[in-house]
Amino acid sequence: MAVDLETIARLVAFKKGKAVPMASDLQIVIQPDALVLCCIALAGEDTTIHGVACGPIGKPAEFLSVPDPRFRDDQYDLFAWIGKRIERYYAECRRCGTHPQIWVSSEAAVKHLDVLSDRLRYNRERADIRRLGELLTYATERFPIGGQQALHAATSALRQHYATGQQAAEDEHLGALLTWIDPPRRTNILAAVALAEQTPMGVKTDPEFDRTKLDPLVRAYNEARRTGASAAQLKGRAQIIHDALMTVVSQIYDATQAAVEILRTRWPRRLLTAPQLQNREAQEFENFMQSRDNGFFLPTWDKPKAAAFKLTEREIALQTIEAAICMGDRVALAKARLAGRILEGSIENPRRMWVRPRVFESTFDLVSAQRVLRIRPRDELFLLSDPRQKALVRTVEREGRKTRVQLEIIKGKNAVGLPSPGSLQVFTPYVPDWNSLTKARIQLAERLAVQPWTHAENGAIPQRVPSQLRKPTDLLAAVEALR
């Protein structure tokens, strides 16, 4: 049903000819000093940068290009130019106790930076190039983690807040996405989008541009270089290539800046958990930089313990950010309600029964009209309006078009108390726990203190030990009892 809500929003956007909001609050944190980085790679050379535009949000860009990135010295000088700016930006963030943030145009640009960081961080020829790879690695390794604020793709950030009248894959073109958000007047939206898609917004130039304009210029430069042309002649040919590239990369830079400006100005309300997201990112950034200061190298591949830590971090981060968005954003709450991931209904039969001296049992019924409900006995739910209260699902019974759920309060009996009869309450299975990652790391460190036999060097399989447990007669009931 949550997918249906997005489909309906896309149909509405198609009918109106304009993107519609899909969030009530800004779901990301925009750093005021964030850096916009737009790179263009040579066709067929994914580990190069032909031209780059770099600058803070809301500020003009600095441009640099090389005539042919296949010449290693020229390419390394361009990498060093980028590295100085990122190094300066990271150092300023450490002095202020914040975290860096890099904006790129699309997820294709994120993948390009990922490939570059992987290549450059093991460079043995120049320390400054290796340093750039290490600094980029922080941002690219943070990108897959839910709730991270180190690296943002403009298309991904806009898709979190808007639904367009086209397919989700088509939203990856930043120019088309911006056209849906701010369509031109008195122009068919599909024609406007088709026109916007003719402008490259990724990390490669248009193939027709390469064939008819860029390739002849690069060939002419290389020919002049081989025939011993003067420095002035080479500089003139390089300037022509630079001007051609800047017409492309400047459009990508301006579009990325426009995307950030839309999010900054049209979404004044931020999630209530935005400070927690910033604090977590600042802590992760300081840990990463401290590790570099201490001389630890980035591994080529993770060992079993490090891999387990990273996998756990991704799972916990995704669960935490989904819970935070659901608690703070009304549209996300509606999606969760339609999908049956939360429980909403009116309260009936609240009662407080004496069990033994100074011990009471608090229960109540919640009657829900939700068509889809993914709630089962023994589930533990938190009160959305006050997560201090936790309830245990006792029974789930269908009554016609409604569902009656009996819950027992297991936490927050005194702090929150019983809900009022007839009141509308919402319960959710998850609430953001910003300390859960620390707890999980402590548990993993204890469990992985001894390397498991599956990762031992000899690969010997331990001998089978007969189980002393009796096999239950009803396996399904036994599994349900473990919940």
Describe the model.
The chain folds into 2 domains: 2-298, no CATH class; 342-428, Beta Barrel (Elongation Factor Tu (Ef-tu), domain 3), CATH 2.40.30. A hairpin with a 6-residue loop joins strand 10 and strand 11 (390-399). It has 14 helices and 13 strands. The model has no long low-confidence stretch (mean pLDDT 91). 46% of the residues lie in helices and 16% in strands. The relative contact order is 0.11. The protein is α+β, with helices and mostly antiparallel strands. It has helices spanning 2-16, 72-96, 107-120, 127-142, 154-159, 174-181, 189-196, 207-226, 231-266, 274-293, 304-328, 330-339, 436-447, 475-481, and strands at residues 20-21, 35-40, 51-56, 62-65, 102-104, 151-153, 162-163, 343-356, 359-368, 380-383, 390-399, 402-411, 424-428. Strands 8-9-12-11-10-13 form a 6-stranded antiparallel barrel. A 5-stranded mixed sheet has the order 4-3-2-5-6, sandwiched between helices.
Question: What order do the helices and strands come in, and which of them pair?
Answer:
Elements: H1 2-16, E1 20-21, E2 35-40, E3 51-56, E4 62-65, H2 72-96, E5 102-104, H3 107-120, H4 127-142, E6 151-153, H5 154-159, E7 162-163, H6 174-181, H7 189-196, H8 207-226, H9 231-266, H10 274-293, H11 304-328, H12 330-339, E8 343-356, E9 359-368, E10 380-383, E11 390-399, E12 402-411, E13 424-428, H13 436-447, H14 475-481
Helix pairs in contact: 2-4, 3-4, 6-7, 8-9, 11-12, 11-13
Question: In short, what is this structure?
Answer:
By secondary structure, this protein is α+β, with helices and mostly antiparallel strands. It is built from 14 helices and 13 strands.
